[in-house]
Specification:
With 70 residues, this protein is mostly helical. The chain has 3 helices and no strands.
C-alpha cells in the first residue's frame, strides 16, 4: 500500500493543499491501525479454529467464478 501510494504521488506530483495532506495522513494512519487489528483478530481466530470454513468458502467462490465465466 505504501509503495503504491508513493508511486501515485510521484506520478501525479506533490501539489497537495494542507487539508488534502492531513486527510491523506489520517487515512493512512487509520488504515494502518485497522490492518493491525484485523491481523491480530485473524491470528487469534487461527489459534482457536481450523481452516475448514475458509476452505469451504474458497471452494464455493471458485465454483461461482467458474460458472460466471462460462
Amino acid at each position: 500500500m505504501l509503495g503504491a501510494s508513493l508511486l501515485k504521488l510521484v506520478k501525479f506530483g506533490l501539489g497537495f493543499t494542507s487539508i488534502e495532506l492531513i486527510i491523506l495522513l489520517v487515512g493512512m494512519f487509520i488504515s494502518f491501525i485497522v490492518s493491525v487489528l484485523i491481523i491480530k483478530f485473524l491470528m487469534n481466530y487461527i489459534k482457536k479454529h481450523n481452516f475448514k470454513a475458509f476452505g469451504y468458502y474458497r471452494i464455493i467462490l471458485g465454483i461461482i467464478i467458474l460458472v460466471c465465466m462460462l
